[in-house]
Amino acid sequence: MFSKKSLDFLSELLNSYGPSGFETETASVFSKYLKEYADDIRCDVTGNSIAALNPKADFKVMMAGHYDEIGFQVVHVSDEGLVYFRSVGGIDKLTVPGTEVVVMNEKGNIPGVIGKKPIHLQETKDRDAAIELKNLWIDIGAEGKKEALKLVAIGDPVAYRANFARMGRNRIFSKGMDDKIGAFVVAEAFREIAESGTKTGVYSVGTVQEELGLRGAHTSAFGIAPQVGFAVDVTFATDTPDVEKKTIGDIRLGKGPVLSRNADTNPVLLKKIKEAARKRKIPFQEEAGFRASGGTDTSAIQLTRSGVAAALVSIPNRYMHTQVEICDLRDVEAAVRLLKETILSLKPGDSFVPR
């Protein structure tokens, strides 16, 4: 299992705040941890954090985990001092009322709660319907508009309140597990690969703005120009009631990371991943992929420049895009090992042209 140092990093990463487009705090946590192991580390103009081993090597392998999270953004402050907002990323409206949040700005993290009309005052027809975000507000305790504007400003990002915790022996829950758990995996794999003494050019990237269209993966992959790229993200665990296995697949917590087989995945690289897993007895699960193409950083990496041999490694996740996403540390640990063993098995002369 992971060392205390690694678990402390995981806790700090998950408890950081970084809605898409506003990932500075999370980037700092990611970069600080990898600085000890990297030959070079930098943040690009988009906000991606890029750690490199052997940056002068011709053969380059990129690992990407996006560390942006879904959230909100301030758009208006009412005369009552209530803060109105819009979504940043894909928000499930049914889960929003009553949520604890923080408004992020130069004054610090301002605590607030998302409020609505009490159920007692709602008409019967409205009680069972999802409330539109425009009819919700954030209450920051201000007694009027003037006081509220001393605390928040138009455009400030808003994040779910940090809530990371262990559950039972192997499971964890947190806001932003999608996809800070992927960023954790690529950081840990990078650390272990660095300790191996490899001469391959290896890059661990915390990407930004994935929830808004894979934007950070586009710019970081173009800048690195790797021959091979891995994206690490979350996928839907289907081991809960009412999730249809016949359309999504049979994916369970604790049974290993998930390998996707769709148009984004290079078949030669996928074969090498499976060979490394079987050789090292690393458990894994398989899925067809939620989409035929797209939806993760994999597709952005694959289509960089003249093309990259890309693959997706996913961590099963329950309750995706809510404040209480759940993953299993056994899957996370196996994903780290799988990336490490696969990357160390790759050679500069390997061909990834499908035949």
Summarize the helices and strands and which ones pair or pack.
Layout: H1 4-15, H2 24-34, E1 40-43, E2 49-53, E3 60-66, E4 71-77, E5 82-88, E6 100-105, E7 108-115, E8 137-139, H3 145-148, E9 157-160, E10 165-167, E11 171-174, H4 177-196, E12 201-207, H5 215-224, E13 228-236, H6 245-248, E14 258-260, H7 267-279, E15 285-287, H8 297-302, E16 309-317, E17 325-328, H9 329-345
Parallel strand pairs: 3-12, 3-13, 13-16, 14-15
Antiparallel strand pairs: 1-2, 2-12, 4-5, 4-9, 5-8, 6-7, 6-9, 7-8, 10-11, 11-17, 14-16
- CATH class assignment of the largest domain: Alpha Beta
Global shape: globular
Radius of gyration: 21 Å
Q: How many strands in all?
A: 17
